[in-house]
Amino acid sequence: MSLPRPHRVDLLLSLSGLTCGLLLWSYGLYMTFGRVFEQRWAALVPLAVMASVETVRRTAPRTALFVGTLTIAGDQFTNGNLATVLMFTDLVYAAVVYGPPASARRIPYTTGLIAVTLTVVLLVWWQNAYALLVGMVTGMVSFLPAITGAVVRNHRDAAEAARLRAEQTALLAEMDRTQAVVAERARMARELHDVVANHLSAIAIHSTAALSLDEPATTHRALTVIRENSVAGLAEMRRLIGLLRDSAGEAVPGAVPSLDGLTELVGRARANGSAGGLGFVLEDLRRPDGAPLPAPVELAAYRIVQESLTNAVKHASPGTVTVRIGHRGGVLTVAVDSPYGKRPGPGAPGTGSGLIGMRERTELLGGAFRAAASGAVWQVRAELPADEEAGNP
Question: Which residue from 27, 51, 65, 212 lies 20 to 30 Å from 112 (Cα-Cα)?
């Protein structure tokens, strides 16, 4: 397995250290004299080795420090070179900054312990102040670079952690924004479906009846219903556009539909469904003196009734459609029963979006929803929490 390619900065440091060492050596500037190997060339061996390991200070920091430690120890037997010592301090620094976390924690303690131990041993042995000087130089050569490297690494790790936190925060913010956009689009889709489908379904059914039956009275009634639904649909669309516009726009949002408008809603359904033999009955079982319901709950109940009546006009067989509204024990119940069977005459296609929208409205408020056939009756049931907290889903 080959070692990683040396970094260009490490190559530059190695070349600079070797060049400075050769200049000092050429001028005869040594660290000490009178060592074991007093030959002039002997000091070049540790210098060359130290310059070589400098090239891997970043890619193999522990190996470089191990070889550098042996080299600086061998340099004590020569007259020495200041460049060799300076390159060793850089190896200690690099081992802390670029080495594994475990090595980065151990090296400062180890070098500090070595400096203190050497000072104590030399004090006992020499019994003079020169031992303190040697211990101080040892600390400056090993412990001080290690501490500097530890400070730099801590700052670097803190900066990296801050960058990761910033990226995570940005990612979470983007996820929140995406979820908010998706939720707003779903809300707009439900509102548009509930508003448009109700009126357009009546328009489609009555226009089909007017085209298929060549009777002036029937055509007149159909055109009357078509006009009423067109006007009501336009008014609802203007209200939605007003809600979607910026507050600085010209449009003024209209009132949000509530259960007080159920009588009018059932009346429109009665007019729309008369051609299909449908009758409509509203049973409002709420207590007259009860506390007002949260606006989101009333809007959800209104839209569920509206969509149920739209589905009845489009799909129900002739008979009576019953709408029951009840409020008991902090729960608002909505029940719509319509005849279920083969429908004669014109109808309108369905996509199933209405049932999905009713279920979503109910679940957003923490309620329960069910829509299924029970014999010859199609039943829609919704239970909506009607306490104050239900207004903040």
Answer: 51
Answer yes or no: is 224 within a domain. no
- Count the Cβ atoms, other than its own, within 10 Å of residue 39: 11
Domain end position, chosen among 143, 170, 197: 170
Answer yes or no: do 138 and 37 share one domain: yes
How far apart, in Å, are the Cα atoms of 187 and each of 183, 193, 244, 357, 358?
Answer: 6, 10, 11, 9, 11
Q: Specify the higher pLDDT residue, 137 or 350.
A: 137
222 is a domain residue: no
Average pLDDT rounded to a whole number, residues 210-233: 68
How many structural domains does the chain have?
A: 2
Range of the domain at 20: 8-170
Give yes or no: residues 160 and 283 share one domain.
no
Phi, psi for residue 318 in degrees, rounded to 5: -55, 140
Query: Per residue in 62-115, pLDDT tens?
Result: 999 999 999 999 988 888 899 999 999 999 999 999 999 998 899 999 999 999
Minimum mean pLDDT range among 42-46, 50-54, 330-334, 338-342: 338-342
Contact status, residue 114 vs residue 138, Cβ threshold 8 Å: yes
Q: Is residue 142 part of a domain?
A: yes
Tell whether 241 is covered by a domain: no
In this predicted structure, what is the pLDDT of residue 131? 85
* CATH (domain of 291): 3.30.565.10
